[in-house]
Predict the structure.
Amino acid sequence: MGIAAEVAKIASIDLFKRDGESGGLLTGTFVGRPFHLDYASALILVADAWKQKAAGVPHGSFLLAYYENEDEISETLLLRVLKPAKLPTDADAISAMVEYYKDNLKTAGKGNQLDTFTKYEFSFSGLECRILGTFYREHGVLAFGADVENFYSAHNYVIIKPNAQVLEAIVNFREGETTGSPSDIRIGAVRYSSSRRFQNGDSQVPVYVTPKDFLGKRTALFGMTRTGKSNTVKKIIQSSVDMGAKAPYSLSNSKAEKPEEILETFTALGVPKYPVGQIIFDINGEYANANMQDQGTAIFELYKEQTIRYSTIAKTGFKVMKVNFYRDVVEGFELVRSHLGQSSGNYIDSFKVIDIAKPDDYSTDKSVQTRYDRKIAAYLCCLFRAGFPVPEKFKVKFSGNAALNKMVKEDGSLDPTKGLTLQEATNWFTAVWDNYEGDFFSKYKSEHGHEWADEELKAIFVFLCRKRKSGGSIDVDGFIKLRGIVNLHTETVDKPFEQDSSSLFRANLSSSVRECDATLR
């Protein structure tokens, strides 16, 4: 039976089906009756014999509460078992048990010395359940409300543990959607409990998802260690690949459609309109690498032709996920800022807030261009002094001044307008900061109404020269703080991995209707 037929079969299951002669419910096994009911919770009386007949009532399992007084009422409360509850008669039962224990009478098993009535009383216990909502019929169609619109007297309800068919209908219920569509994908199975003492093949029911269940939604997965979180994520990845394989269009032919149609995410059948791409941040390498537990089912092994892997370490089969800090200044500075987030101090805080992005009026305002070029050159000198390998023949250019050039070197040969190596630029900026309290800069401020170096450039000078004050002694770590991220720099990458992965991502999605590109780290 195909998935569409299986899901269509689920839609035909009647949650209110009764025996035509006796009127008894045919949706599961009787487990008890409530003795308290409100809008949020229910307290249920259960007996050992009832639980045994129902193959157990596990913690967290679904139960259904039906109002029994009127057969024509087609509604049932969906409950989830939380924990044991006290019965109103528990105090009397405990007192009786204590007396039997004092008399050293056998109260259980073979040779039980209790009378029939007492044994019967001792077999009852209580369960506390949370009310999740209400299933009901609306115009002949099954609907679900996540609340309780009305409840009747507790003693008029009967509690049923749903059978496998009804459980399947509950876990796969989709209000307002057509089931059995070609977008349905089986993601796994669910059973009443992790323990399998009462479990059999019929008690495990399939669970289906549609693209709308995950794509474009926020989904969180929580669980204790060794409970299957990684495997569940792997199943979601596989299901998303299957969803993308059903897409009728590729990005390359999207121009043939009307503009308003391009914005639509899904087709009328609920299938993704375009191939589904996935970006997986795999910190522990669970999906990008094979391990003993996978046995040939690692995500990369399953989808070798559709997967591109990135790593911060150069190794076979992976693209390097590094940044050329000298070419990709903005991206590199974001990594610097993140790294310095672990450090504190006024001079560090001043450095972190520097705006490294090129100003919008860079090409039209000469003053803005001058200050920005100086700032970038001084920042790159910090990287150089921190030990970031410099690309071959790399130089920086910025506007200097003849007087400053002579201040740096008597013959004025270090002219930044002609291009300087980072070592030469470092010497130039260091000499400027060591003499920043001198006459030239005081005169510059009085003539122009502002300092030669703005606050951002001075923050970089402190980092570069490791001196809080001009001409002072070394009193801060400065550029040494950056040595911890030198391993994130590469001289070989022409563009940052964000741009590289994005272009590959779109290219692979456009090349074929059946391709799905997953970028792994």
Observations:
- The first helix runs from residue 3 to 11.
